[in-house]
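Researcher: Next entry in the queue.
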Amino acid sequence: MTPRIGAARAAEVAALIAAAAAAEIWPRFRNLAAGEVRTKTGPHDVVTAADEAAERAIGTALARMFPGVPVVGEEAAAADPALLARVGAAETVFVCDPVDGTANFAAGMPLFGSMLALIRHGEPVAAWIHDPVLKDTAIALRGEGAWVEGADGSRHDLRVADPVPVARMVGAISHRYLPPELAARVRPRLGALGAGWELRCAAHEWRLGASGRLHALFYWRLYPWDHAPGVLLHAEAGGYARRLDGQPYHAGVHAGGLLAAPDRAGWEALREALFGEGGGQG
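Model: Structure for this entry, 282 residues:
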């Protein structure tokens, strides 16, 4: 089944994400019991009761709204890794990160978001990034633009920043998961940018990129629930994102680097500045 989603339907999906966040995420913020936080793959990879409860709530609501369309959540995929392998090949699938920036959430830092994308044959066609703190949602539909809808019904369109030279770019560059040899090459080059930081929250980094407040974004690890929503949001806001080999984003590719800039020329200059000859492929 391939659902068609227009602006009105997209607003309904945004409302269900907001409802799940209000019921399952916000009441637990700075209110987690000791047993409601645990580690997954390592000490810096945590999951909370809010992640799990919100993922269940969003999945249940989507199943009612779009019967027959599978939903793959980050926490479900952590329990069953085979789910991740099915995302790229699925005709249509929702992917969900109920609390992106869980480390921030667990630490009591109000910088986290809920991410959702509808993927068709590996390509995102609809995207939502909800801010449970400010209670607004960034939405994108392929070919129809990107915008933010507020809880009060207000709406404003999103647009990436104007192109600038690399030396004036402000970037969110995530280099934590780079292979050691590539990390040794890239980290000394980060000073080529005008400024840079990592928010530990792809949801807000992609929103900042799509709203013109960041020029550059880079990620090595490419789980679809972390990046499919942001890639579409950024593209519909006028931006240019490609894997380091120059190929478009595909939800079936989970590593190898993804770089975003306001336009293609800026992307090429940024790749050269950060990775040099070979663009990080050699």
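Model: The mean pLDDT is 95.
Researcher: Noted, moving on.
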